[in-house]
Amino acid sequence: MTAPFQAELDRWGPQAAAGPRVTLAQAQAYCRDLARTHYENFPVVSWLLPRRLHQHFYNIYAYCRWADDLGDEVGDAARSLELLAWWRRELEACRAGAATHPVFVALAETLAEFAIPLDPFVDLISAFEQDQRVTEYETFVQLRDYCRRSADPVGRLVLYLCGAHTEQNVSWSDSICTGLQLANFWQDVSRDFDRGRVYLPREDRERFGYSREDLAARAETAEFVRLMEFEVGRARDFLIAGLPLAEELPFRMRIEVELFARGGLRILDRIAGIGYCVWRTRPVVTKRDFAGLFLRSFGRAVARGCFPRRPRAADPSSSTTYRP
Questions:
Q1: Domains of the chain, with CATH numbers?
Q2: Would you give per-residue pLDDT tens digits along the chain (324 residues)?
Q3: Residue 115: DSSP 8-state
Q4: 180-210 b/e with 16+ CB inside 10 Å = b?
């Protein structure tokens, strides 16, 4: 377990439940600090978001950060499952108005204000629990189901905060979130393998002739390149399929959503740019990339505002299930 998370667990873990309760203001400050100091490819909250939503984004991020760390940073599967079960109980206590952990003291206000059900939060916990039991996936269908619970709930929560949680928007959001999750998997093939996890489905590895021996040797063979090219293309399809969501959201959120989706596409471009050799190099989105993506996303959002498209009819064929 990393020292920073061990310190957090010592202070706010199960043994802290009997301690004094934090105030709402203290809980909100805790979530803000956590979100501002922990982010991956993009900041959690940017100036684009309406200020009234900032704290709620911090609250949801803090919940996701803790759940993720309970699954990834503990270093012992059995202990992680115990702690995730505790986190599930804290979530139920939050809904019942009996929260003690600062994340849930803050989150309770968000749940109430936006009438958010617990399902997305429970799905996230179930995905992190699965991480402790499943380290390799046989089929893409299985991997997609994992993404449905590990990534898609985040987008759905954002839609609740934006007042845009409709069936069609959820479908587009799920497509973007799964695409981003896949892009992260292909970005982190080596890192995940170091942790004993393989997200490249066995059926795909066999389809392209990439053997288990090749996998164990981290071999960057021609077969591996073709395999990664296929997986990158699949992730790209998911991201592109979800882009229409940006047209259905308010101006500021339109930019945010497109920025994240196109950031995922840029990661995929980076993977392709290094010849798919992700065993040796971890491609990243640079600050310069981010600035360029922002300017283009901003320009497209302005153009849509000046020249709005006709209302889009719901497309029943816009499923997020990949069709090879």
A1: 22-133 (1.10.600.10), 135-309 (1.10.600.10)
A2: 677 888 889 889 998 766 668 999 999 999 999 988 865 544 444 556 788 999 999 999 999 999 999 998 898 999 999 999 999 999 999 999 999 999 999 999 999 999 999 999 999 999 999 999 999 999 999 999 999 999 999 999 999 999 999 999 999 999 999 999 999 999 999 999 998 999 999 999 999 999 999 999 999 999 999 999 999 999 999 999 999 998 888 777 887 888 889 889 999 999 999 999 999 999 887 666 555 644 454 444 444 444 445 544 444 334 433 333
A3: T
A4: bbbbbbbbbbeebbeeebbbbbbebbeebeb
Angle at 187 between CA 39 and CA 323, to 5 degrees: 115
Q: For residues 99 and 107, is the Cβ–Cβ distance under 8 A? A: yes
pTM to 2 decimal places: 0.84
Strand partners, 198: 136
Instruction: Give the C-alpha separation, 189 to 60, whole Å.
Output: 27
Phi, psi of 99 (to 5 degrees): -70, 145
Separation in Å, CA 22 to CA 53, 106, 239, 260, 267: 22, 10, 40, 34, 40
- Compute how many other C-beta atoms are within 10 angstroms of the C-beta atom of residue 16: 14
Residue 106 to residues 11, 25, 99, 163: CA-CA distances in angstroms? 17, 8, 9, 20
Say whether 282 sits in a helix, a strand or coil. coil
Handedness of CA 244, 248, 252, 257 (dihedral sign): negative
Q: Which two tokens stand for residue 205?
A: 């590895």
Residue pair 168/242 in contact by the 8 Å Cβ criterion: no
